[in-house]
Amino acid sequence: MSKKVFFCNCGANLISADRKLAISTYLKQTGHPFAEISDLCGCSVDRKSETRDQFLEVEEVLIVACFPRAVRLLLENCGIDHSSLKFEYLNFRELSNDQLYAGIDLFFEGNTEVGEFTELHGNAEWPSWFPLIDYSRCNTCGQCADFCLFGVYEKLGNKVVVVNPKGCKNNCPACGRICAQTAIVFPKYEHAGAIAGADSIDEMAEQQRQQLDIDTILGSNIYQALEMRKAKRQSIIRSTAMQQAIAEREKALAEKRSKK
Ligand code: SF4
Ligand code: SF4
Fold this sequence. Notes:
By secondary structure, this protein is α/β, with parallel strands linked by helices. The protein is 43% helix and 15% strand.
């Protein structure tokens, strides 16, 4: 039975560099197959196929990262089929390093397999902050797409999808806060809970939080507020397109002048 452990070394920007180094060192000294991914969020956008390749010829996987629901959504984002492998998770946001080591030892108990250590790096320039939709909760209301000013979402057929993750504004979880289904996850959200991808969701508490957030963010007339945001987004898109057209025109004129 081929086993492999994956460690997401971004630490969700929540665990210290010392803790991350200690986990990485511990995993290396076990000698078992081990892949260190600098940033699973970023790799799920920029390095999908390389991330998928890390799971080839593996039957059982232990993932040391943040909340399992968030990690599952990230793996889906890479196109990894959960049903074909056996997954276990250790959440470094909730467990101490000693608890992680105990979990790793248990995973490899009785397994003498020695394997290689591999590394996969994401794009260090991008904070890889973006939303993931948990389709087991989403009811396709489209509110997130109407709300976001930066074209991160699009309504495609009978689905809302994240089409422009890099358009998302770093540390802005606003659409997640107003989603009535609590279907939007930001894996790097600093507070624990449904928006960070926690598996157990206190539905009553979430409803109360949403109501407060909706009142604060959208005011009492939600439909009017969403219409206004849609209009604002269109104007941002138009002004961006206009700026691009002006820049292209200036470039073409400069090229023409240089040829004279
Ligand atoms: S607001 Fe929430 S429920 Fe509505 S489409 Fe977006 S993710 Fe789905
Ligand atoms: S967090 Fe903000 S910028 Fe990002 S998708 Fe949601 S509304 Fe758009």
